[in-house]
Write a structure and sequence with these properties.
The complex is a heterodimer.
Chain A lengths: L1 H29 L16 E6 L6 H14 L14 E4 L1 H4 L10 H5 L2 E4 L7 H5 L5 E3 L5 E3 L9 H5 L6 E2 L25 E2 L5 H4 L6 H5 L4 E5 L6 H8 L2 E2 L11 E4 L1
Parallel strand pairs in A: 1-10
Antiparallel strand pairs in A: 1-8, 2-3, 4-5, 6-7, 9-10
Chain B lengths: L9 H27 L14 H14 L2 H9 L6 H25 L8 H4 L6 H28 L8 H24 L12 H28 L5 H32 L2 H11 L9 H18 L2 H4 L5 H25 L14 H31 L9
The chains are: A alpha+beta, B mainly alpha.
Chain lengths: 256, 391
């Protein structure tokens, strides 16, 4: 009897101590602690991009940027129409179908235009996603959760810019596995992916890959900040956006 | 009541076995798709939905069409539909099962399908489509089963089922409306971006579904002797006639808006369907055949003499089902993506894998329908209601 009472008191004491410690231990273990934020990370209320197509307009120039982007993000090269594209080139009429004029300047007809996700202010892809796998961040970057995506491809039907790709097959089959970028994950088949404005680079205080590679032809910055580099060029030059009549408010501007 | 499905003639078991073999063989193709991904389909970056989603759309219509029998019978006490109502409800069950299967085989990560429920997203029409389809399935199982069981026991159905029946009538309209909303709210898909899509869907459903039901009941009559009665057939054919006229009228409204406005974006999908775009004419033959079938079916349905001709009716119903199937089950989805986001044309045609997986799902639907109809006709036989009097 006595023995058992002592045991009980011991047990109760240890339990009480445990209860006191649990919240702290739980917080440490569950990952609910504050995330570590890189102090240098770039912040904006609304990220936007201005592409100067007077400087950047040949297939070779754009391919160089696309290669850099695709290499950084481990985007496979698939030689069929089930390919994955984060950044690619297209003609004027493909890029701006509703704004095509007759008798355009020859030089303009030959120009190639870099296309990528527009990171719209009202993104239809986010509106239709049934699992919130694609979502809009506070800085208006439209991002993907590849682990959440069920591969219904509703976002692809909704995107008016053809900016989304679906991994019809295992992307690793078409990746140079010895030459992967270990800083960015590869994807699995059956999920949708797209340009992410290099959120992982912004988090480390660096500009997107295409911006740094463009030698000044692509300007990137905060659209809400009147002193930002994007606002500076927008003030200076005439720009157009893709399919503005749809009201998605694209975040990518083109100087023609 | 399920025991009724376990006792049957060798012919019944032979058919069940045949369906199971077909399902088994075609599921190997589906397993191949699970291993290699949707790359085995003809879909691409530009045409990201294809045959699966088209079949899903058509079958939701078939499911919704049960309303055209339930509404007169339950809301207007139209007694002549007594022999038809359970058949309509059971066809709806099988059609919803097929629809859900088609969505499941179309998603790239089917093992994550529960994410739709774990992370409910009210801004997505696909979420609501899942809700209405699963709800409609539950309602039809509950109503069909309860009413048939009371019939078997020769008692009136319980009172609590009434409000559920009324709900199911509204719900039937809802499933096809929400399915139309999947398409109708997307920017830059001109063929879909039309307020009349939901109305068109319902009109097509209310002619195609009952037509399919009558065709199936022809077979049922041959096999079991069960007949819903001349009066029911005549009235339902009238419904089919009106719905088909409205369906064709609605399509003409689309043609008018597209071509009178002369807006390229609205005209191009129509041009693609009926004369081809940038050399791609894959659907042209189908569309003209479908248009001819739709017009001919109206010609054969509107005059009472032709409509009530018992030997002509099956032919009329077959061409009507074909015409509406081409419209919704073949061309609707592809035309929405053509021209694509870059105003160019990407060809799409279903691969043999897509066809085989679709055959698997149709066979699953046929299996469900066979079992349900076996139960229903056996009970009708026990009640000696096998062949209601002809007029």
């Amino acid at each position: 009897m006595k023995q058992s009472r002592r045991n009980f008191l011991k047990f109760a004491g240890i339990s009480a101590a445990g209860l006191c410690l649990t919240p702290a231990a739980g917080a440490l273990a569950s990952g609910k602690a504050h995330p570590i934020v890189n102090k240098a990370h770039l912040k904006a209320k609304r990220w936007a991009m201005v592409i100067d197509t007077r400087k950047l307009n040949t297939k070779e120039q754009i391919e160089k940027l696309a290669d850099a982007c695709h290499h950084w993000h481990n985007v496979p090269k698939i030689p069929t129409n089930q390919d994955i594209k984060w950044l690619w080139d297209a003609s004027y009429s493909e890029s701006f179908p509703e704004q095509e004029n007759n008798h355009m300047a020859e030089e303009l007809e030959e120009r190639r235009f870099p296309l990528l996700c527009n990171h719209c202010e009202h993104p239809p892809c986010v509106r239709v996603c049934p699992t919130k796998a694609t979502f809009q961040r506070a800085d208006h970057i439209v991002a993907m959760d590849y682990h959440r995506c069920i591969g219904c491809r509703y976002c692809m039907a909704a995107c008016p810019f053809g900016a989304r790709s679906f991994n019809f097959m295992d992307p690793r089959l078409h990746l140079d596995m010895d030459n992967l970028n270990m800083k960015f994950p590869t994807r699995m088949r059956g999920v949708v992916e797209k340009c992410n404005f290099c959120v992982e680079k912004l988090a480390e205080g660096e500009l997107p890959v295409c911006v740094t590679k463009s030698e000044g032809a692509i300007v990137f910055g905060d659209l809400t900040d009147p002193n930002s580099p994007v606002r500076e060029v927008l003030r200076k030059d005439f720009t157009i956006r893709r399919k503005p009549e749809l009201g998605t408010e694209p975040g990518v501007y083109y100087i023609i | 009541m399920l025991e009724k499905a376990l006792k049957g003639s060798p012919r019944y078991w032979g058919w069940i076995l045949f369906l199971i073999i077909v399902i088994g063989l075609c599921s190997l193709v589906y397993i191949n798709q699970l291993i290699h991904g949707l790359t085995v389909t003809g879909m691409s970056r530009d045409i990201s939905w294809g045959f699966y989603i088209a079949q899903f759309t058509y079958l939701v219509g078939v499911a919704a069409s049960g309303v055209m029998i339930a509404l007169p019978f339950y809301l207007h006490n139209y007694e002549k539909y007594r022999g038809l109502v359970i058949m309509g409800e059971f066809l709806a069950i099988s059609a919803v099962v097929m629809s859900l299967c088609f969505v499941l085989v179309d998603i790239g990560q089917p093992q994550r399908a529960m994410n739709m429920i774990l992370h409910p997203t009210p801004n997505s029409m696909l979420f609501w489509d899942m809700v209405v389809l699963c709800g409609y399935l539950a309602l039809n199982v509950l109503i069909g089963w309860t009413c048939l069981e009371s019939e078997r026991q020769r008692v009136h159905p319980p009172k609590w089922i009434k409000p559920i029946i009324y709900l199911s009538v509204v719900w039937g309209f809802a499933i096809h409306t929400v399915t139309a909303f999947l398409y109708a709210g997307l920017p830059s898909r001109h063929y879909w971006l039309s307020a009349i899509v939901a109305a068109r869907f319902l009109a097509a459903a209310f002619c195609a579904g009952p037509a399919l039901l009558l065709l199936i009941l022809y077979v049922v009559r041959k096999l079991t002797g069960y007949y819903q009665g001349d009066a029911a057939t005549k009235t339902l054919t009238k419904t089919i006639t009106y719905a088909m006229c409205v369906n064709v009228f609605f399509f003409m409204l689309e043609l008018f808006t597209a071509f009178y406005s002369n807006i390229p974006g609205h005209m191009e999908p129509m041009v693609f369907l009926f004369s081809g775009l940038e050399g791609n004419t894959s659907l042209v033959g189908w569309m003209w055949a479908a248009a001819a079938c739709c017009i001919l079916s109206i010609i054969l349905l509107v005059p009472p003499k032709l409509r009530d001709n018992k030997s002509l009716l099956p032919f009329t119903l077959v061409i009507l089902v074909f015409g509406t199937w081409v419209d919704k089950g073949m061309s609707f989805v592809t035309a929405g993506f053509t021209p694509n986001a870059f105003n160019t044309v990407t060809p799409y045609w279903p691969t043999s894998s897509e066809i085989a997986v679709s055959v698997m799902i149709w066979s699953i639907g046929a299996l469900v329908l066979t079992i349900l109809y076996k139960i229903a006709t056996d009970i009708k036989r026990d009640l000696s209601e096998l062949t209601p009097e002809d007029e």
